[in-house]
Automatic annotation (TrEMBL):
Membrane-topology annotation of the record: Multi-pass membrane protein
Name of the protein this chain belongs to: Cation:proton antiporter
Stretches assigned to the NADH:quinone oxidoreductase/Mrp antiporter transmembrane domain: 127-413
Annotated keywords: Cell membrane, Membrane, Transmembrane, Transmembrane helix
UniProt keyword Cell membrane present: yes
Localization terms from the record: Cell membrane; Membrane
UniProt cross-references to InterPro entries, sorted A to Z: CPA3_Na-H_Antiporter_D (IPR050586), NADH_UbQ_OxRdtase (IPR003918), ND/Mrp_TM (IPR001750)
GO terms for biological process, alphabetical: ATP synthesis coupled electron transport
Main location: membrane
GO cellular component, as recorded: plasma membrane
Family: Belongs to the CPA3 antiporters (TC 2.A.63) subunit D family.
Amino acid sequence: MTAGAVLPIFVALPLIVSAITALSPSKKLNDALSILIPAINLAGGIWLYAYTSTHGTIGHVIGKYQGGVGISFGGDQFSAVMLVATMIVAITANWFAIAVGETQARYFTSLTLVLVTGVTGALLTADLFNFFVMIEVMLLPSYGLIAMTGTRHRLLSARTFVLVNLAASTLLLVGVGYIYGVAGAVNIGALRGAAAGNGPITVATGLVIIAVAAKAGVFPVHTWLPRTYPSTSAAVMGLFSGLHTKVAVYMLFRIWVVIFDMDERWNTLIIVIMVISMLIGGFAGLAEDTMRRVLAYQMVNGMPFILVMLAFTAGGGEAARYALAAGLLYTVHHMITVGALVLNVGAIEETYGTGTISKLAGIARRDPLTSAVFVAGAFSIVGFPPFSGIFGKVTIMLAAAQPGDWRSWVVITTIIVASFGALLSMMRVWKEVFWGRPMQNYPEALNVRWRFMLPSASMMLLSLAMFIGAGQMWDASTTAVDSLLNVDAYSTAVLGTDPVGVPNVAELQGGN
């Protein structure tokens, strides 16, 4: 058995175990499996990173069909880093769900494991249609999770979530169908460079990008995210924040590098959209009335910080490598930090029964650990040391500064202004919720329990470790980006040496 044959196991394992947990009456077994299965995939991601660093990108076609015919999987260091980061978030969110008793719901564990199945498959698939399938595998349990957990507004939010994602999925499927119609293939490796010089393929792939961007919560299709995620439970919002949007980031990076060949003609459009998205995400949280809605806009704010890096990859080479590595580093930081903040706020909600800003005050005196974790997360999200956000922001600004033209000035200025907006949002929450007079309507003995706090505190310790080990994190990011940029190795791995039905990209471009 080749190493590539392991890749489908990453997807099959959580799917099989989800069926076991659906049938099992044992809560203890289900709780253990909700942690164990993502932990196994986490270990597998570490193995994948180490193996591909030595042997290069690996691939596998289900059933050993020839490349271009069967369902292809591909794994490199880029997908390995994303797999490790998403599994860390999944483990921590499930840990919090166990701590607060959310896994009492009969099918909670089963649904989260199906979600993990879809995430893993989306990160390892080498086929756009299979990516659509894995997105649907992610969404089906998400519909259940968003409807069965959270506030009394969850059903209204679930309706919005379903409608938006169904529309985006329909557009995604139409785009994939058009790509097959004009190119004759949907294998990512077979489409290398296809959208860089062919109008129909560019339009078809553009539909896919719009659909994926909608799922990432990027302007102008962002408003659904802060209106739906906070209506779920904190554990589910933590899962969604680290999994749904970041899978979209992964595929946008892959499509941009492989299919668009980093076509610089789209750089201005990318910058305009991302600049607007930064400003909206940075300041819109100031108008929200609950802590988790404020954090939801920090999710909206984080996506353009990552995706604007695509506009600084023109010409490839060292500039592209630096920009993509900065985007990847910020992605991992954002997953850890936002996840920690959401679970921290969730611990407050579980204790005091509300996350409404106007109903809380003086928590810094009652719960110093809870307050310390929030401050640490706020420092990290804004970009203050000693947490991972400082290096994420600095590397992004350095990458944006490389061209030294109007793009650099616009993006760097917007990053500073949007970060100031995020600071104001975090300061408002601190002032209203953590500072001020002690609350009179709660007994003095009521405090956030340690078991509620440990998941978020662990995430912030990881953010601190990322700050201390910034050099190692940067090395891992640049190495992962090198594998992303090595399109020849990726195409060879996912197509094999004798692929079938692979379009001649030169003819497609020549026919434009």
